[in-house]
Design a protein that fits this description.
- The chain is mostly helical.
- It contains 9 helices and 2 strands; from the N terminus they run ββααααααααα.
- It has one domain.
- A two-stranded antiparallel sheet has the order 1-2.
- 36% of the residues are buried.
Length: 170
Amino acid sequence: MQSQTNAKHGDVFGVSCAAELQSPVVSTGIGSAAIDGDPITIGEALEAVAISTGDKPVDQNDADAIGAAEIRATGEKKMRAGGVGETAQAAATFNSNTVRVQDMKKLSDILTDATEKLPVDKAVTKEDAEAVYAAEVQFPSRVTAAEVAEHGSGAVAASMATAADLNERN
């Protein structure tokens, strides 16, 4: 089949375009689970945080939430040695002793590829989201008003709550 391309706009005009139409292609990356009906996992919810607020330095509230998410994903009673929760705790400790923001560990440093870093993953439930929220807000005085204004607050819990809500709808 011959076609012509409009160089100005990149449009393709073919003799019989209808025969070539296919279903829209949906990326199999982050967020596609909600589109294709598969439940969103805890790892995927954590990866969404890396994408949405990844430049935020890890604070203790984030570390607590990430640790709780890991525990919920694995079903274990504590964080795994070398897991995302322990790595987040180390990053929060490092950041608390670091003056320059550009030298701090960011959420994206910890949560990129979270699904691969978790030894076990599961669909996010409302109970998971509530447990992560409780962990994230248990010590609200750790985050200053200036930090909330600059970077936002509650990204991990918000991502988990959104995932749980989408999972309940499907």
